[in-house]
Write a structure and sequence with these properties.
- The chain is 54% helix and 15% strand.
- The chain is of the alpha+beta class.
- The strands form three sheets. Strands 1-9-6-2 form a four-stranded mixed beta sheet.
- The chain starts with a strand and ends with a helix.
Length: 252
Amino acid sequence: MQIKRQERSFKAVQSNNPYFLSKLIRCPQCGAGMVAGTSNGKTKKYRYYKCGNFHNKGASVCSSNSINADLAEAQVLEEIKRIVTDSNFIQQLVQKMNQERENAFEPLIAQKEYVESIIKENEKKINNAVEKLMDDPDLKPLVEGKIKEQQQEIVANQIELEKIEEELANINTKPIDLMALHHFIKNIDEILEKVSGEEKKELLRMIVEQIEITPSAEKRSHSRQKGREVASIKLYFDFTPEAVKKSQKVSS
């Protein structure tokens, strides 16, 4: 689900908050997760997010593409709280997410069956190659190469099969609780105020999958730039009763 930002102003509040949107905000140029940055002004220190690739590898890979941290965080929290005002939206969201959870097994099972069929096909080719080798030893150089090739494909497909099986084991099919979702988002600002920096990051990652920002700083006037802003927020929810109980323990 994609939530597009609306045209309205946000007041950025200077604070010593942890960078709880690190890695969630994506660089508009390369798509890498953005990381914490600071700069010293004349009277105060400024917080911002900058491209992780730029931070780790330098300007040869990407640019800073920085965004004011206080402004970005205020926009994200405001957008999350905004959806609470539309109860119909939340109800439709819960119905959609629960339907997706019910059907989550189907594509993975189909993918698993396909990979298993490929493995069986490769095993069949190996058996055929071995039979040819037994019938005609002179084919050994050619047949051995084909057997090795098929064995390598089997190993690669078995690794893929293990990943699929792990995904199937971790699928959460428990229905999302409508009231729990509504309560959690409605009180998200209060909850985030009470928790530690790491707990704040964990809670935000229950809600936000990734955040996109405007590719360039917009001009506010002929002489000043407005700066980058949050363009869209991609959310996913883990609002089963168990997940909400866990978050409430953190906030108490």
